[in-house]
Specification:
mainly alpha; two-stranded parallel sheet; 58% helix
Amino acid sequence: MRFLRFRKWLKDVLTMGELGTQFSKDTPGLIIWEQAHHRGGASTELCVGLVTDVLAEAALYGLEHMSVHSATLKKFATGKGKSSKEEMIIKAKESYPDVEILDDNHADALLMLRYGLTELGLNV
């Protein structure tokens, strides 16, 4: 059931978007996620399955996709791979001064977006 709920959620996100717009094969887009720390067992199995669904949807919609390791993201954002949550929030606020950062997860998501765009050569 977890996989089915995730597939539905992902499809809803990709077909509606925040502004109610729909992605098509002609719409450039990016799916980026934090790479799982594979430690074996059920959690690794779950992550592999979820990533498979993401890759399938990215292919269907013609979206760029990539994962980023948490240490890589931290190093990109702050210059060091073991930054604290508070440091990441500060960097997100600096990068997106007009956005109210809700929490460390929101900060990470914004910084992942910046990382992905930078990797694609679309510096913002």
